[in-house]
Amino acid sequence: MALTLFTLALALPAVLALENGLARTPQMGWNTWNHFGCGISEDTILSAAKALVSNNLTSYGYEYVIVDDCWQAPARDPSTGAPVADPSKFPNGIKDVADQVHNMGLKFGIYSSAGTYTCGGRFGSLDHEEIDAKTYASWGVDYLKYDNCYNEGRAGTPKISYDRYANMTRALNATGRPILYSMCNWGEDGPWNFAVDIANSWRISGDIHDDFDRYDDRCPCTSILDCKLPGFHCAMSRIIDFAAPVGQKAGPGHWNDLDMLEVGNGGMNFDEYVTHFSMWALVKSPLILGNDITNMSNDTLTIITNDALIAVNQDPNGSPASRIWKRTLPEGGDLQLWQGSLVNNQFVFALMNTSPNPQTVNVSFTDVFVDQGASYQSGTFTLYDLWQKDPSSGAWGLNLGDFTGSVPNVQIGTHQTKVWKAIPVSTSQKRDRAEL
Ligand code: GLA
């Protein structure tokens, strides 16, 4: 009997599903990379953690403080093989930093690569998954960003990539500590298809560049679905294009990651950063700040604390917005309409103008409610502009009144995005068919 059970156990597939219960809504926090690159130390992390608290960003949901590349010593511990931190940057070790971050009521994240080296040339975790996961857990790590550099060619089919990344899923699960697993393989081999039950999020593209729309050959793909070279220097609005077809694959516990935010890093203007933050929120990307939060302008703080947009991102439905249409304009760029469902039969929709000119648009409810059907398309909705504040309460979301059929005559400036929340006035609207 014992032998039979043993044989049966061997025959069952290893349980790989990510059972960590984390990221039921997209993760929020701050990461070192976009602003500081390799120029980090214990002080960078602790100052940022203090700034999260002192700027009250924790009350908006920002909770993870994540150390990206270049925290590692030149080599692993020669006797145990365990990872070691660079003693000049982290003289008290990583556990001490993690403890201090925890004492501020925050969570702590770290970075490695599913390769021989990280992208910054430090030791990677390929074939060291177990000892690395164990060590991270012993340090009190709550989050792992796991990159793709120097992967020894172990990519090229979804199965090969899956196996390489699932080794870390297994190792993290085995520690018994809940560690959010943020895969960063730049969309290679289509992680939206294969990573849904091994990771909490996956990067969909090459690295973001702090720029609205500049084309750069180092981000050569026009779509990510068959992208052979994700590259880097991907302008922000190109990543929005990349995200459009894969929203359908994300949901609670498993998200498309459009990369860390650039809001506040200086490469875009206010309207462009509003577009950036709005679209990351609507498609349910993790919201990981990437600026120097110890030194922020009021504009930056205004954008990253728009709690109406954050509520869209964190909506319990976890349903990413879809692009309803994209209209290319003769002067260059386009207009795009996006729509998503929220809890309690509420909706969010957004109009984005990537063209160089201001535009005037009638936003038709036939388009906005294309998925909900006729009774919604002809229904009446109270609309709230999520980038205007209610003058009496000061809260984001100005009540614009009730609308039937369309939002007429919308004036939208160059590179702007307008976001509306729609609440049905009558609850009689019946959906034509179940939404996906
Ligand atoms: C890759 C990742 C980035 C960052 C760097 C660090 O490029 O995609 O987000 O982690 O590596 O070297």
UniProtKB/TrEMBL annotation:
PANTHER family registered for this protein in UniProt: ALPHA-GALACTOSIDASE MEL1 (PTHR11452:SF75), ALPHA-GALACTOSIDASE/ALPHA-N-ACETYLGALACTOSAMINIDASE (PTHR11452)
Alpha galactosidase C-terminal domain ranges (all copies): 333-421
Protein's cellular compartments: Secreted
PROSITE patterns for this protein: ALPHA_GALACTOSIDASE
Keyword entries, A-Z: Disulfide bond, Glycoprotein, Glycosidase, Hydrolase, Secreted, Signal
InterPro entries: Aldolase_TIM (IPR013785), GH (IPR017853), Glyco_hydro_27 (IPR002241), Glyco_hydro_27/36_CS (IPR000111), Glyco_hydro_b (IPR013780), Glyco_hydro_melibiase (IPR006215), Melibiase_C (IPR041233)
GO biological process: melibiose catabolic process
Signal peptide: 1-17
Annotated Gene Ontology cellular component terms: extracellular region
Reactions accelerated catalytically: Hydrolysis of terminal, non-reducing alpha-D-galactose residues in alpha-D-galactosides, including galactose oligosaccharides, galactomannans and galactolipids
EC assignment: 3.2.1.22
A GO molecular-function descriptor: alpha-galactosidase activity
Record-given protein name: Alpha-galactosidase
Family under the similarity heading: Belongs to the glycosyl hydrolase 27 family.
